[in-house]
Amino acid sequence: MKEMQRTFTINAPLIAVWDALATGAGFSAWSNSETSMDETEGGAISLWGGQVIGKNLKINPQKELTQEWDFGWEEPSLATFTFSFDELSKTTKVELRHSNVPSTEYKDIFTGWDKEVFDPIKDFLKKD
Prior knowledge:
Layout: E1 2-10, H1 14-22, H2 24-31, E2 36-37, E3 44-47, E4 52-60, E5 64-70, E6 78-87, E7 92-101, H3 106-127
Antiparallel strand pairs: 1-7, 2-3, 3-4, 4-5, 5-6, 6-7
């Protein structure tokens, strides 16, 4: 298993980026999928129409979000993600720490964060 660290810069205010990742309505809006998110520590989450389930482990609003996701279709199925947020002058920097990355899937997961999460968020927030 490996740990992945990535940094993403999004041309949007911190509150918009936080909402896109940390709220059910925000996540659903950019992902165009059914999302359920209990926005409390320990609260259950269901993303991409239930393809990914998990829970919020730690919430420090607009600073840090740690979630555990269960992919169910790969081994090991549990992974932990920590998103750290930093508002710059007109952009928001998101640092991602993804633990429990299968070595054989590292490259696909690395590019998947762009293709499946951060590029769609960037495109969605351009519209606002």
